[in-house]
Design a protein that fits this description.
This protein is mainly α. The chain has one domain (16-34, 47-230). 82% of the residues lie in helices and 0% in strands.
């Protein structure tokens, strides 16, 4: 039986990337409204931020979840189609397949004679040979076709949960209490957390992952803020 930690790690990718897109997308709206207000546009209060933010959050979360599901299904179908083609090719001409595989094995450090001997044995199993051919010739690994719906739901949920963070100050705090500043702080903290989750998912250095996550999110926020200033200035 899988432990809770093991199940969590299975979905770290979906949590990390779904959450990151949710934060950046929603905070871009908050920053855009802040830029417009800084230009002197009136009537763009918390209600407008919430309406546009929640509408965008919901639509993009559904899009992200469906995208995860459809991309996983497409990858699975593509792998199966190519795998069937390679199995047929190996069955028709195992000698040619063995010769090709022997070249790959030589590049992996086997002596040529040992590589050919191994490849000849592999060619007796077209299914196994097809797995290796797809890996070496096409760079394709067998996709994890299990739990596509679960991965899509986790992506959707991560997008909603993390994407709601930039909007939280506009719900919880009163007007005039520096809601935009609190939104910036909450968003930065969430991006740091996602950077640490990314480290757990990819194994890269924590400092690099956190800095990249925060910088990318910050760049998107600055662009959105400047866009708000520019558009409001046109009016």
């Amino acid at each position: 039986m899988r432990t809770l930690d093991g199940r969590f790690r299975d979905y770290l990718k979906q949590i990390t990337y779904g959450g990151n897109d949710g934060i950046v997308t929603t905070f871009a709206i908050v920053a855009g409204f802040a830029g417009a207000e800084a230009q002197g546009v009136v009537g763009l209060g918390a209600l407008a931020v919430l309406i546009f933010g929640l509408a965008n959050l919901t639509a993009d979360a559904v899009s992200m979840g469906m995208g995860e599901f459809l991309s996983g299904r497409s990858a699975t179908e593509l792998f199966r189609a190519r795998h069937t083609q390679v199995v047929e090719r190996v069955s028709q001409d195992p000698g040619a397949a063995a010769e090709r595989m022997a070249e790959h094995l030589v590049t992996q450090g086997l002596a040529r004679e040992d590589a050919r001997h191994t490849a000849d044995h592999l060619a007796t199993s077209p299914t196994l040979m097809a797995d290796l051919v797809l890996r070496y010739d096409y760079g394709m690994e067998a996709p994890d076709c299990h739990n596509l719906r679960a991965r899509a739901f986790v992506t959707f949920l991560a997008f909603v949960v993390f994407g709601a963070i930039p909007l939280a100050p506009f719900v919880l705090l009163a007007e005039g209490s520096g809601r935009f500043g609190w939104s910036v702080a909450a968003t930065t903290l969430a991006l740091v957390l996602l950077g640490l989750l990314r480290t757990a998912a990819t194994g890269e250095r924590a400092l690099r992952a956190v800095m990249e996550t925060v910088l990318v999110g910050g760049l998107c926020a600055v662009v959105a803020y400047l866009a708000g200033l520019f558009v409001a200035g046109l009016g």
